[in-house]
């Protein structure tokens, strides 16, 4: 049985923090693979800053030297903007029957689920395991204990909380803002991706 983590994000652009986070999670949780899942540009809750083609190209460059990292454009290829994590996880469970598939997310998203902001949240929590990464200012244990939904499924294996050394705040947003204002974020994203951004005039 393989252990697989599904790492969804906009990756707009992919950053060195994304890669470092995925590598650390894979090491600590003994994952065999981390699937990088760029979100659909059709989603109404996302405002993306470049095209799917650019995001895919940068991810391909960033992931090519790590055999544990896999790019999957499943959500990008859905016809509808109405793409929900519950259905995405159903897809990956059917794709990897018999394997342990977990959803990787930040503690901020755990709070959103606890507050009922996600569609099919009951079904999502009931049928999946989660690797939850620390975010500054969020107490993950309190988030779970205060939510009837989360605490009633907390059997000791549902949520793998990683609360040490992962609360880094350098984000894709930070990099885009630096580029837009003439800053220099060169060492915050892979060299090939930095060159790609510059060559294509992205985020200017």
Automatic annotation (TrEMBL):
<comment type="similarity">
    <text>Belongs to the NadD family.</text>
</comment>
<keyword id="KW-0067">ATP-binding</keyword>
<keyword id="KW-0547">Nucleotide-binding</keyword>
<dbReference type="GO" id="GO:0016779">
    <property type="term" value="F:nucleotidyltransferase activity"/>
</dbReference>
<keyword id="KW-0520">NAD</keyword>
<keyword id="KW-0662">Pyridine nucleotide biosynthesis</keyword>
<comment type="pathway">
    <text>Cofactor biosynthesis; NAD(+) biosynthesis; deamido-NAD(+) from nicotinate D-ribonucleotide: step 1/1.</text>
</comment>
<dbReference type="InterPro" id="IPR014729">
    <property type="entry name" value="Rossmann-like_a/b/a_fold"/>
</dbReference>
<protein>
    <recommendedName>
        <fullName>Probable nicotinate-nucleotide adenylyltransferase</fullName>
        <ecNumber>2.7.7.18</ecNumber>
    </recommendedName>
</protein>
<dbReference type="InterPro" id="IPR005248">
    <property type="entry name" value="NadD/NMNAT"/>
</dbReference>
<keyword id="KW-0808">Transferase</keyword>
<keyword id="KW-0548">Nucleotidyltransferase</keyword>
<comment type="function">
    <text>Catalyzes the reversible adenylation of nicotinate mononucleotide (NaMN) to nicotinic acid adenine dinucleotide (NaAD).</text>
</comment>
<feature type="domain" description="Cytidyltransferase-like">
    <location>
        <begin position="6"/>
        <end position="177"/>
    </location>
</feature>
<dbReference type="Pfam" id="PF01467">
    <property type="entry name" value="CTP_transf_like"/>
</dbReference>
<dbReference type="InterPro" id="IPR004821">
    <property type="entry name" value="Cyt_trans-like"/>
</dbReference>
